[in-house]
Amino acid sequence: MSEWKVGQIKVKVGGYTPAPSAAQAAPAPTAAQAPTQAPDATRARLSEIHAAVQARDFDRAAILAEAALKAGLEHPMVLNLAALKFEQDGRYDEALGALGRAVELAPQDLGARNALGLVLARLERYPEALAAFDGVVALEPGFAGAHCARGTALEAMGRLKEAEAAYRHALELQPENLGAVQGLANLLSRRGAHAEARPLAETVLAAEPNFPDAVMVLAAADAAEGAGERAQRRLELLAADERLTPQQRALAHGQLGDVLDAQDLPAEAFQAYAACNMSLWRAYAPVYGGAGDSLEFARAMVGVLGEIAPEAWAQPASSAAAGPDAPRAHVFLLGFPRSGTTLLEQVLASRPDVEALEERETLGAAQREFLAQASDLHRLARASDAELAATRAAYWERVRAEGAQPAGKVFVDKHPLNTFRLPLILKLFPDAKILFARRDPRDVVLSSYRRRFAMSSSAYQLLTLPAAAGYYDAAMRIAERLEPAIAPRTLVVRHESLVEDFDKTVGEVCSFLGLGWTDAMRNFADQARDRAVATPSGAQLSRGLSAEGVGAWRRYRDQLAPVLPQLATWAERFGYAAE
């Protein structure tokens, strides 16, 4: 565990902010809780553990608690402290088991519930962590630490407006809560509000020198002000700090790459990006690095689609509407990460008659039902409208659960990776339109490699150039195999055209969707700031239209050399200059 207390509560008994500790909140032990212990022995063990807690010797308290648990003593305080020891040892399943049992024994124990959420967050199981923190807040609405922890989980889930509300509420309850101060600084930095983020980060650093998130917020502010060398020094010192977790060090190297790139040092920048990605690649290999990963699955899809006649995907269904709350038009915006989907979404979302949903897994239930493995494509291709009805209804239920209100509007479901789910889209929603974002494949793969995404099986493929290029290739091959079915209802939107002639390109998109042009669409940057964009494009979009990424691959030609032949095939096919 990191030795910093900010943001991730170091001592799990009661948390970083004032709250009853597990030792203080736990009821007196009963014989049922410790059947193998004599009453005197039980009291003696609990007294010894409690004394260690009162002395804030949590390491000793955790060791004593683990021994007591092995001896058969089940008590909320013992379980909570033993979980702390399990977590420190990397035994997370045991920590979750102990905390779950503590909550069973003492449902009102805020310390155990909060600790359960923190371990779940440590494992990046954010929806479960959020549920745990919600439980704490329900029991104790005034516990600022739980509101801050909710903000952290919400931020990780991309629900940035809710995260900001949680951080601000925590600060209302406890203005000195450094976790909430840092969380708010992170969000402001992400949207490019560096002047507002800087003093918050400085407040955190005054209490916790070299705290990673605060250093990175200041480095981003320095870079935005043109002080690249100062940002570079901050990040180099941070990356050398032995207290960093592998993920923290990776993020520091990734941001260092951005700073070096801005100084026109591509070779040095690429070294930093490689250090970032290799650290993440190793850290997440146990979870995402095995057989059957997203790249292998995508390539298997390409093979199976070659066995199915294209017309199987073009059959219309008769009841694809969403019911009485149906949208005026249904649009899927997809392509590949870093192809310009976020820019186009923000432009469209600036209109009041457009409801846009940013990168939510709305097709998760459909994938589990009809695309759990590549061979399921045969069954999906044969599926009748009646067989698909429940899955279609589940989609709309999920859309509304994510907060979208599509009724009567042009509803844009934006997710660049939905290219891999095109067969589902074609069968479930034959009346939906498709906006396919396209950008020079070489810029796409380079940008995907350089950005830091929330980790997933797909994001894991972007950590190495060969896998990123292979994943892009698989996505385009899936679209190519399905082109006869998707072409009649698809508009390809070139990112470069959007940048070069905004009005003309957006006008074509509006015409395709049955929307009228409005000058307000040029003000998408203000909309992006208000909507709190969760993707890596957020800060860039807040600055407005920019051509800075167009042709960026040329500066990294030497580093991209191993994958350029594979990408050149698509570049030529899409009309980009072969260089």
Describe it for me?
The structure is a single chain. With 579 residues, the protein is mainly alpha-helical. It folds into three domains: 1-175, Tetratricopeptide repeat domain (Serine Threonine Protein Phosphatase 5, Tetratricopeptide repeat), CATH 1.25.40; 177-288, Tetratricopeptide repeat domain (Serine Threonine Protein Phosphatase 5, Tetratricopeptide repeat, Alpha Horseshoe), CATH 1.25.40; 294-549, 3-Layer(aba) Sandwich (Rossmann fold). The chain is built from 31 helices and five strands. It has a five-stranded parallel β-sheet. Helix 4 packs antiparallel against helix 5 (92-105), helix 4 (76-88) packs parallel to helix 6 and helix 8 runs parallel beside helix 10 (178-190). The longest helix has 23 residues, at 266-288. The two termini are 48 Å apart.
